[in-house]
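#onboarding

Welcome to the new folks! Below is a worked example of what a typical request in this channel looks like: someone posts a single protein sequence, and someone else replies with the predicted structure as tokens. Don't worry about understanding the tokens yet, we'll cover that in week two.

Example request:
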Amino acid sequence: MIVVTGTKRSGTSMWMQILIASGLPFLGERFPGQWKQSIGAANPEGFYESRLLRRGIYGKAEMDPLTGKPLDPVLLRKHVVKIFIPGVVRTHVRHLGRVISTMRDFREYDHSRRRMWSMQDEALRARRDDYEAPPRLEPVYEWWTSNYGLLVDGLRRGYPLRIWAYDTILENPERTIREALSFVGGGNVEDALSAVHPEHRTQRTPPTPEGIEPAITQVFDDLYEMVRLQRPLTYPMVSRLEAVNRTLLPRLKESLSRVRKLRAERRAALSSDDESSHDDGSEMELPGSRAPSPGPRHG
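Example response:
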């Protein structure tokens, strides 16, 4: 399959819209459940995702809900599906025919993620007077864990992976779309271009989140710049990524453990249609301290 991945709020929906507009079939819905009413303003053109498959194609999610049979990666090889990074790491490589990932500046990601949570919380408070916002992993930790984890996973398992920066598609949409469609093996460029809407961008370089040291901030920025300019992953960069991960891993473990513990304590009180219940970062899988090895271009 053609998998679109990234962190939440990183441009995955934009890539889905582009690939669908190019003529490729897809798995999912434009607005699953009540999303149009609750968080549609965050993505007016649609999310195009499956609430089951976005967590990965494994276990029960590997079964077609219509036929009860396993999803056939050969028959679905031209279908586009959105799977967020933790789900890609859990997905069997046979389903990862081509993987397009998008990365956003960590400052914009932090601000956009918090805006989405605010919209979700507001919609749920309107439905339930007793609603309380769930504990959540800090967005900057989600950003690092996902993007570093994808580099590690892609290089270790060797599936075809291309990573583009969120800004790249807005700065040079035609070149980027041509590269992407060549990578996935087809699609109409002119139709795909019609799905690019720079006016929907809501974040413009917000301030750096608190609690992140300048040295770590610099590595985050250099990683994003590497992807934005499509520079190769080098040994010096690998060493810097490894050092940052060693520094952050104890914080990530502690924070993730706290979120999961608090979520477990209140799970019984949450309704089954609580749309933020699976949108808190608790599905993260922490990468190990071992860094990826330099390999093909990742931009």
